[in-house]
Amino acid sequence: MAAMGLTEWAYSLSESLLSDPLPRRWAHSLGVAKRARSLGPIMGDDAELLEAAAVLHDIGYSPTIATTGFHPLDGARFLRDQEKADERVVRLVAHHSCALLEAEERGLRQELEGEFELERPDLVDALLYCDMTTTPDGTQTTPAERLDEIVQRYGPDTIVGRFIQRAAPEIHAASERVEGRLAQVSADGQPM
User: Fold this and answer.
1) C-alpha distances in angstroms, 172 versus 40, 81, 164?
2) DSSP per-residue codes, 92-121
3) What is the mean pLDDT of the chain?
4) Residue-wise DSSP of 50-103
5) Any residues with CB less than 8 A from the CB of 70 and at least 6 apart, and which?
6) Is residue 1 part of a domain?
7) Which pLDDT belongs to residue 4?
8) Does residue 40 sit within a domain?
9) Can you tell me the mean pLDDT for 64-73?
10) Residues 29 and 54: beta-carbon distance below 8 Å
11) Considering the entire predicted model, what is its pTM?
């Protein structure tokens, strides 16, 4: 990883794990990373970190590394144990998009909490926003449309369906916080 930049490494790794076995998941990851780049004006020195976490957030779905079937945990463990990745990237992947609530549904909350600390709230919000404003095909959407799509795809009574409905208030709140920060930067006359 030292020979290449953080984002270059992240894109390469994510592509190697997702593009062939899960091309739609790869397209989504690229879309989430694109959204992360668009948050550069509010991310400052953490812009590269956010983009790297964004393109890597779903690698735990890769059949080559999925072990528990809970992609935030599988992805974070792979990044930590196999890749010796930046600790902050690992934490963002572990906790992306209200992962603790889904971990609870799966009986894995203690494992996730015990192994991976939460990252700074503004970064957690930013990654959640990027994920929840990107469709499975990588195009931009709204949090409400994304939540509806997830419930329809998985079903309201599945683990993912139940979790995402529980997470909806936090997803909307985090999105509002990020949009508020973007609006503030825009109002201050900074380029967007």
Assistant:
1) 21, 33, 11
2) HHHTTTTHHHHHHHHT-HHHHHHH-PPPPH
3) 95
4) HHHHHHHTTGGGSTTT-SSS-HHHHHHHHHHHTS---HHHHHHHHTTTTHHHHH
5) 60, 102, 103, 106, 108, 112
6) no
7) 72
8) yes
9) 97
10) yes
11) 0.94
Q: How far apart are CA 170 and CA 166, in angstroms?
A: 8
Q: Amino acid identity of 173?
A: A
CA–CA separation, 62 and 26 (whole Å): 10
CA distances from 41 to 17, 48, 190 (A): 30, 12, 8
- Type of residue at 109: R
Residue 42 has pLDDT above 70, yes or no: yes
Q: Is residue 160 pLDDT above 60, yes or no?
A: yes
Side chain identity, residue 160: V
Range of the domain at 65: 6-189
> Domain count of the chain?
1
Dump pLDDT digits (tens) for 10-27. Answer: 999 999 999 999 999 999
* Mean pLDDT of all residues in 155-171: 97
